[in-house]
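Tokens as discussed.
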């Protein structure tokens, strides 16, 4: 196996994560086209409230991700820490890694899309920060063998690959 290859059970993540990013990019392009072309009427009045809601949602989602990560890694760690690497079923570690990757990307995508809706409704360009940051976070969730190895090492206290 090449150093950048993922196990077969995780290959779908290499399709899903870029697809999430592309969907967001395409929606952003449509929103920007509609706003800059004057093809849609915007109402700037609710912008401040919606941006505040976006910020509050971002804080809640960050807290939720931290809790989800702690629960998933904690459950795996309680079960497998200190065991020899060959005793740990790779499918179990891969499933935890896949779950955390998808949850993190989905949370970032949701905030990004909400920011684009705010831009579409209000015309407030400050909302474009949400999809910009979200796109970066989604890109950081792209699975690599090194990230999987670090996750497995965090759970077992040893390297998996």
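Sequence:
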């Amino acid at each position: 196996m090449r150093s950048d290859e993922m196990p077969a059970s995780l290959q779908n993540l290499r399709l899903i994560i870029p697809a999430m990013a592309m969907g967001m990019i395409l929606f952003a392009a449509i929103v920007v086209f509609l706003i800059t072309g004057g093809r849609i009427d915007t109402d700037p009045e609710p912008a401040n409230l919606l941006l505040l809601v976006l910020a509050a949602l971002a804080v809640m989602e960050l807290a939720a991700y931290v809790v989800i990560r702690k629960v998933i890694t904690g459950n795996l760690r309680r079960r497998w820490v200190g065991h020899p690497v060959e005793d740990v079923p790779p499918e179990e570690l891969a499933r935890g890694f896949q779950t955390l990757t998808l949850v993190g990307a989905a949370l970032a995508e949701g905030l990004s899309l909400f920011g684009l809706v705010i831009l579409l409704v209000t015309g407030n360009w400050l909302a474009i920060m949400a999809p910009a940051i979200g796109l970066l976070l989604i890109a950081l969730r792209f699975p690599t063998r090194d990230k999987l190895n670090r996750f497995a090492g965090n759970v077992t206290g040893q390297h998996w690959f």
